[in-house]
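ESCALATION

Customer reports they have been waiting on this structure for their group meeting. Please prioritize. Original submission:
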Amino acid sequence: MTNSTQSRTLRAIEAVNVGDRTARVQAGTRLSALNQQLARANSFSQFDLGADPAIGGMIASNTGGSRLLRYGDVQRNLLGLEVVLADADATVLTDMKALRKDNSGIDLKQFVGRNRGYIRNHHGRAVGSSPSAAQTATALLVPARQEAIPELLNRLEAEAGEFLAAFEGCRPTRSKPQCCHNPRIRNPFGPGAVPAYTVLV
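Update from on-call: job pushed to the front of the queue and completed.
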């Protein structure tokens, strides 16, 4: 894809800054494309979603994903924004300083970003990234009863601290399509079997 085509479709990844742990992307950039680019720098975006949305859509809906517990939602990781207002002059507002803390005035990116697409079109944005971990572990837990889930979370947080990146509950309507209908995934519960509730850790 040429740069001119990328610009027309708003899918360009304009810059990845490993030192600042930031990436500047256009609104139509897919999460998978961003992660592929970051992986080359031994980094990753903080969002782990089953879908492959555009970054602009993630900002408009303030999505979270499986790593919400560790890294927070999109608004927490939004470091810059360039928008075009829906006025007669198509006014462009820019706040692309990519600062994690900025007390110099109104935080434009948070004010505009939280309006869920009603007053502008996204064009450019800067989002945070994190270094890739040297080791990771994943578990799919089956709680004995629903009431035990908060206690399970508290104990895992007490033992693992900041190393606990994800804690997400899954009902059968969500886990069955993956376990029973995705040929790339081996169903750990046996053919066609899915528990009433599982927790992804």
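Sent to customer with the following note: Residues 60 and 117 are 6 Å apart (CA to CA).
Escalation resolved.
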